[in-house]
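Batch job 17 of 40 flagged for manual review because the log was empty.
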Amino acid sequence: MPTCLHEVVGILNECGPAARVLAGGTDLVVELRSGKIAPRFIVEMKRLSDLPPFIDQIDGCLTISATATMSDIERHETVRDRLPALAEAASVVGSTQIRNRATLAGNVCNASPAADTIPVLAVYGAMIKLLGPNGERLLRVVDFVHGNRKTALATGEVVTAVKIPLPNQPFGAAFARITRRRGVDLATVSVCCGIDKAGMTTFAFGAVSPRPVLLRKANGVLADSPASSDTKALDDLILQASPVTDVRGSAEYRLAMLRVLAERAQQRALERLADGNKNR
C-alpha cells in the first residue's frame, strides 16, 4: 500500500490502465460490483502521509485536497460564505452516507455528464492540480473533462487537489438542478449561474452533453432580474447547449428545463451579488 503521493505516481506509471485510484470509492465500487471494470490493482489514497483531507486558503485560492469529502465541503464556512453554489452542489451529491465518503476530486475524475459539481467548478474558474512522472501541472476543469468518463489524466498522473480562485470583487453564483424523482438521483439537467459586478454573466450547463457547456455574456443584459432582462439573450445562450436525448430526458424536455433552471439560478445569483457574495 502506498504511503505517499510519489509512490502512487510510481505505481500508476508502471501499471497504467491496470490500476485504478480509490479516494472515496463511491463511483469505483459501483463499477467494480457491476463488472464494468476489472483492474488488477486498486491504489488507496486515504492513508497517504502527504495528502490529508483539508480545505484551506492558499495564494488567493481555496484549495481542496483530493481526499476531502463532499460533507467537508458542504459544511465548510469559507465555501458557504464565498462559494455558495459549490456548497449547494455538494449538498445534493448522493445520500448523506455517500457525501461522507465521496470526494470532489473523485466527482471530477469520474467525469459523468451528470456530475453536480462540475458546472459549478466551471463557473468559478476552478483548476485541477495534477502530479505525474513529469511533475505538477494545473488544468482548468473545462479542459480537464474531455467527455463522458474521459479526462486529461495522462499515464502515471493523479489529481491531488482542486483549486478555486476566491472572488476578489462582488460575485454572485447559484446552482440549480432537476431530477426524475425526489431524493437520491442523477440530474436530468443542472445549471450554475455566476454574475460579477461588471455585468459579466456566466452559465454552465450539466447533464445535457458529454462535456460541461460553459457560456458567457459580457454586455450586462443578463445581469438584471429575469423578469426585466433580455430574454432573447438567455434563449440564445440556452440554444447553444444542444442537449442530448437519453433515458433521463429528451432534448426538448432538457431545453425547456434549462430555461426554467437558468432563470432560477440567475435570480439567486443576482440576490447574492447584491448581498456582497454572502450566502444567506
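Reviewer: the log was empty due to a logging misconfiguration, but the result itself is present. The chain has two domains: 53-165, 171-274. Unflagging and moving on to job 18.
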